[in-house]
Target: Major facilitator superfamily (MFS) profile domain-containing protein
Amino acid sequence: MAGGEGEAAWPLLDEKPDVYFDGCPGCAMERRKAENPGIPYGLFFHTWIINLVTCLPVSSLFPFLYFMIRDLGIAKKVEDIGFYAGFVGASYMLGRALTSIFWGILADRIGRKPIIVITTLSSLVFNTLFGLSVHYWMAISTRFLLGFLNGSLGTIRAYAVEVCRPEHHAIGLSLVNTSWAIALIIGPAIGGYFAQPTEKFPNLFSTDSLFGRFPYFLPCLFISIICFVVLISCIWLPETLHTHKVHNKEDQHPESLITYLSDSKEFDKQCSTSTKNKGLLTNWPLMSSIILFCITCFDDMAYSEIFSLWAESDKKYGGLSFSSEDVGNVLVVTGASILLYQTFIYPHIAQVLGLINSSRVATILSMVLLFTYPPMAYLSRPWLSIVVNVASVLKSCSVATVVTCSFILQNNSVPQDQRATANGIATTLMSLFKAFAPAGAGIVFSWAQKHQHASIFPGDQMVFFLLDVVVLFELIWTFKPFLDIPKQTSSS
Model:
């Protein structure tokens, strides 16, 4: 152990740990944090870029999915495109829902790094195959397998708090969310600009080329190349999981004692006496924050599915008649705004209002915004583009606020040796919600286009009203007795 440096490196603990175990990667990480109390920018960036590449296949789909379903020929009528598009989005989430708990348990057994490597490799393979889809069943299958083998989402959240000291946890988890924001910039840009290249860049790509036969392969290939680069970089990714057995204090000799760190000794003691004696599923602070997370993600996924379909549908159906490039531009602006919001604005809002109150304000803002979407179809450019971009930015920032809050609550509800499993449970339940969201949204949107001229609640108004109902449940869940806040977070 270091002498004076070690004393100054533990501002949140009553005393420093006594012994680090040789050969234990978790202990090596704890030593590294003790000796370097500052923000670990290098590890944060590596975590951020890994999460980014696993999010790109999800976000890149939105600008061209409408046209891909049309070209696959599965929809007999234009009004049915939304119906079939919903199941493509749902297949990924269903696959992830089936295996997320397994990946979380495995990450708590064998480590975070192997799961991250497997996920990145599977993203490379099945995202490429998705771009080569010429049949609807192939598109569904490759998306399902892409989600089925994606185990990094819960793992990366656990990893983000394990590579930094407790005072930097909010930054680490915020960066995980920010990587999704960047994926919302890069993904839609790649999907919107590179899909159908023979139509957009006829001088570069002929109709007889590979990209003429597979018009949606180029954006998928581009993302897969990025995945390959990140996969190679994982060679230098440090492990954070402790590999030695942790015993109770009274059963140990003082010379072999190690403080098994979470947020603080008090938190570690609380988790040892509570979560070890009861399962994670009965840990209500954890489960209530996961439910809030799931409702928010359902709202976000349903909105993302509906927004793209609504914006690209014809104005006679209540849409905006946007092209894939138009939608890509909106999502790029939205993603860039979320990045700025998460980095510079949200920390100050959370500090002033607290985690819970900021989430409540965000959900109320989201409800108000959703009522403004149907009238946008009556606007003309350039006001249409301006209003759509502003509304999309504010809606997504509202979602980011609640999601970041739920991340912090979840990770504060369990000790380190259960974080990946807890995040696996969160990812499983969230994926189930997200599996139903695009499928349900696609069905509702298809129904809405067939009832656009109803005298009461025309189709487009009904779609956004139902989204508002979901956000209302989200708001209600931020209050007691539904949301149980961990003691160490109650002051936030």
In short: DSSP finds 19 helices and no strands in the chain. Residues 1-17, 247-277 have pLDDT under 50 and may be disordered. The two ends are 33 Å apart (CA to CA). Residues 101 and 424 are 4 Å apart (CA to CA).
